[in-house]
Amino acid sequence: MGHAYTPGLKVTDKMLVRKHRILPLKGDVIVKVGDSVNPDDVVARTHLPGNVVPLNVANKLGLPPEDLTEVMLKKEGDEIKEGEAIALKKGIFKFLNSTCPATIDGTLESISTVTGQVLQRGEPIPVEVKAYIRGKITEVIENEGVVVDTYASFVQGIFGIGGETSGELIIATPDNKTILSDDLIKDEMKGKIVVGGSLVTADALKKAIKVGVKGIVVGGFDDKDLRDFLGYDIGVAITGSEDIGVSLVVTEGFGTIDMAHKTFDLLSSNIGKQACINGATQIRAGVIRPEVVIPIVGEETINPADAEREILGLDIGSPIRVIRHPYFGKLGKVTGLPSPLHVLESESKARILEVAFDDGEKAIVPRANVEMIES
Amino acid sequence: MAKFDNPDDIKIIVATDCGSTTTKAILIEFTNGEYRLTTRGEAPTTVEAPFEDVTMGVLNAVGELEELSGRKLLDENGRFISPANGNIGTDVYISTSSAGGGLQMMVAGVVRSMTAESAERAALGAGAIVMDVIASNDKRLPHQQIERIRQLRPDMILLSGGIDGGTTTHVVEIAELISAADPRPRLGSSYKLPVIYAGNKDATENVKTTLGDKVDLKVVDNLRPVLERENLGPAREEIHEQFMEHVMAQAPGYKKLMSWADAPIMPTPGAVGLIIQTIADQYGIEALGVDIGGATTDVFSVFRPGGKEGVFNRTVSANLGMSYSISNVFAEATLPKVMRWVPFKMDERDLRNRVKNKMIRPTTIPQSMEELIFEQAIAKEALRLAHIQHKNFATVLKGVQQQRTIADAFEQSSSGATIVNMMTLDMLIGSGGVLSHAPRRQQSALMMIDAFSPEGITRLAVDSIFMMPQLGVLTEVQPKAATEVFEKDCLIHLGTCIAPVGESKKGGPVMKYTIELPTGTVSGTLNSLEMKKFELGIQENGLPQTAKAIFEPEKNFDLGSGKGAKVTKEIHGGVVGIILDGRGRPFDLSTLSEDARVTHLKEWMTELNIYPEGKF
User: Fold this and answer.
1) What is the ipTM of this complex?
2) Which residues of B touch A109 (CB under 8 A)?
3) Which residue segment(s) compose the domain that B153 sits in?
4) Which positions 528-567 of B are in contact with A (Cβ < 8 Å)?
């Protein structure tokens, strides 16, 4: 298996970004092909079936289950209101009658003469799907959702937390190395997507939430801060549903790591534009990476050369980043790709490459421990 | 494919395992009177886009077998040539699969620790990942249970509950919950979700009425017909049947693959369980196997409580693994527990970031010795936690009333007590990257000893290239070939661990030993907190050398025959040899002072030659 390296994360100034916006259940699509949409526009909506609440009516009325149908006042499919009697057991005298009231608003789903149980279904729960990015509807999938296309600058992160949000892009640090600390978070950043350098501190994140910042894009984040911040340790990298008041996209990894120049420069060139970000991450089969999408207004074509720019593999001169100790985070260029297996200091045998780092140092690194950087 | 009335006529076998990332193929040939693995090949699995046809990966892996072995296996249409003739073709082709996330199931029962647990055991034994266990008493409200069933989208549901002739109400209630949830299958919506009912037979008609229209209901014998007995076979068979019919048939290319194979395609973990059961039964031994992967750790065991028939158990620790789940191991085990295996100090903040970086970049490998030592420390904790989960699950049946005599009253055993007995365990088998590919085999041995704390005399082995799945399914076709290849080519025999049980007092003697090694007899005294290693290797045919040994434990120590009782036994060697472990059982590093801990760790690592000198 020749490609024993990790393909780099995508960082590109222009590409076609296509998003499928699909309902969890069939429902109504409320836009049509050709419509222009903004991130907060609703494109489809439906109702999820309401919660089911069982009620053992036979027990409540002290009846054998098989007698249940005789006492039911409501039948399957009838509407019910909380407190309304759904069953009546007659006594010898009227004052000895006993009733069983519904415990929720909704409909009566089923009556069981085996268990004596009545299932009540609550009111349907409305669900809406928004466009998430500014763009055009290019396809409507009947009753299910839509496809939104946009031409955009695009940055893929390595890890994130929090869901989809959007806002005006702003740079908070003078360069890609500076740590985004709380003193750099200002009140006027409310509602914006803030870009920092090599790390965001826990205090800066807290202040950002207080100020009302919508999202943060940064090179590194400390695991200890992540744990303190969330109140629990993330065991497996499946995120996106955290409700913390801000979405975070980490572009390089855990620890203090300079944001890649290319990423920082690309974001800097888009100051003032609307950015749509999503912190959702899933590192397993069907990988989902966090992302920053900056739609390019008025541009609806793409240079074929940009579209076809594909990384073919590691080569001499390829720019890389090391993604594991002892050279973690260092950038350099490949200077040799010897094919025989090499015995590492750990005594593991692996395919390696020779690298010259930007600071002049040379080293040997397993190919599995580098990531390509798109040039 | 050719059909063989006599399995002994099968001389050439091709087997594949379609994993989520790679498809591994092996070629087994009958030469010089024995079955041996002769060639192996692998290629990326092609279940997902852009290929979406699992057979392409199979053909690529088999193509590699052809290149390396010089045997032509496929015709010009890419079909297996069968039967074998000279240097062309194969007699049988078989396969296992875990591609596409394996078999994902939900199980339901009435009482969590009784029928629901039996159902869980049936599903795990069949090779499934159990996504959730729903029970009447699982402390969730009915609407929460319904919500969960709806969210999960399993491949199938196994429903059990009630003993035959018992009350029907509770199991029908669970059926009603499933009906209300109206669950959808994970792959495709073109078919109804398979639900297997294996509960009280008296409730069958009511379950049919409740669920019949909404799901594809299959009814099999009750898996807990009486409290005292489980009957998991019919449910497991039906799970395999449904796996083939629904799950496999939905995955791209599998219909073609199923038509090629001479035996039903089995879920990978189910096949691993089968080979471990076969070996344990063939030799009448107790065996425990562990497979530690990137995301999950599986533990398989066959124990014989009371010296009776072997009882098989499998557990899946869903979030204990060495890459995707490494951060969870760290969170569950806690930092001090991991770091107790490391003989030097590391910065906590830096360590935490390293673990998280491995989680988000799971394919990286340890380059420095420090990284390797740290990674192996995490592996010990992942294995230890998976072992605890296994011990808690592999129990005698719960809810069974036991007649007790006065003598029993002094024993702590009770209904639900574990059947995992490390003292009677004969063989511990490790598998998965961190164990199978450790740079030194001694490292694999020590990881297993530290994690599982084997007691008494226990053989240690690792699976060389993870071919247990293929051999598991081979037991269905040619069991002799499966067991021969398992012992001679699949297993790398590491040796034997001798660990007396007893409190280790500082400095005192633990036992006397005399071992008649081929190079000469060695004898001496093993002291407390001491580890010793002796060479006893492998024969030319791949099987371990043996040696007669006499062990005389001190009066507070037990080697299986009672405290202070002498043990004479033939012990097996391996690439590591014989390891004498004088650290006592239970062994707890935390009782040592910080300085003593580091000193002893270094002594053990030096004695067993775990890491190169000067690097720890």
Assistant:
1) 0.86
2) 180
3) 102-260
4) none
State the Cα angle at B67 between B65 and B73, rounded to 5°. Answer: 55
Candidate from B176, B353, B362 with C-beta closest to A222: B353
Find chain A residues with C-beta within 8 A of B327's C-beta.
Answer: 233-237
Decide: B528 and B510 in contact? Cβ < 8 Å: yes
- Asked if A161 contacts A55 with a C-beta cutoff of 8 angstroms, the reply is no
Chain A residues close to B146, C-beta within 8 Å: 51-52
Are the Cβ atoms of B328 and A223 closer than 8 angstroms? Answer: no
Q: How many domains does chain A have?
A: 3
Task: Give the whole-angstrom CA distance, residue A283 versus residue A293.
Answer: 20
Domain region containing A270: 11-45+130-295
Interface test with B, best of A57, A325, A328, A341 (most B CBs within 10 A): A325
Q: How many domains does chain B have?
A: 3
What chain A residue is nearest to B206 in terms of C-alpha separation?
A114
Q: B12 in helix, strand or coil? A: strand
Q: What is the pLDDT along chain A (375 residues), one digit of tens a residue?
A: 334 455 678 889 999 999 999 887 788 999 999 999 999 999 999 887 788 888 999 999 999 999 999 999 999 999 999 999 999 998 888 888 899 999 999 999 889 998 898 999 899 889 899 999 999 999 999 988 999 999 999 999 999 999 999 999 999 999 999 999 999 999 999 999 999 999 999 999 999 999 999 999 999 999 999 988 888 888 888 888 888 899 999 999 999 999 988 899 999 999 999 999 999 998 765 678 999 999 998 766 555 555 545 545 788 998 898 999 999 988 899 999 998 889 999 999 998 999 999 899 999 999 989 988 765
Residues of B in contact with A158 (CB under 8 A): 360-361
Spell out the residues 6+ positions from residue B116 whose beta carbon is closer than 8 angstroms to its own: B107, B108, B109, B110, B133, B134, B135, B138, B160, B161
User: Pick from A238, A263, A295: which residue ends a domain?
Assistant: A295
Classify residue B615: in a domain, yes or no.
no
What CATH number does the domain containing B38 carry? 3.30.420.40
Does A260 reside within a domain? yes
Contacts of B325 in chain A (CB under 8 A): 235-236
| B178 and B70 together in one domain | no
Around Cβ B39, how many Cβ atoms within 10 Å? 18
> Residues A134, A166: one domain?
yes
Report yes or no: B212 at the A interface, CB cutoff 8 Å: no
